[in-house]
Prior knowledge:
Layout: H1 3-16, H2 31-42, H3 45-88, H4 92-108, H5 113-126
Helix pairs in contact: 3-4
Amino acid sequence: MSTEDLSTSDSEAAFAGAGERWAPVGAVANPEDEQWKRGTQAGSVSSSDADLVSRLRKLEDEQEQLNSSLLALTSHFAQVQFRLKQIVHAQSDEKERMLLELEEFAFKGCPHVIGCRAQDAQMLENS
């Protein structure tokens, strides 16, 4: 390895170890982030912090709701798939009855998983 190779790799290592990650070229800044930065520089952190905390809580609640809904929908879809497979392999005289049951089940709607979580938590506390 030549001296020139060593000096090039040393300078690259210095840049790589900077530790600061820059935004991609052309990235659009979030206006709320810019407003928060200006607020911290001006010294009005307390009202901004309360707004950020409430916004964070709201986003976390929305994420939990979305995750719960996704779980319910996925579970419901898996049950429909399972019942369809049962119908395909069923005797011909049972298929009509099973199709009617599947139609009723499919249009009944998805259960709400959030209520189930609360019940599960209460059952764990009681046991």
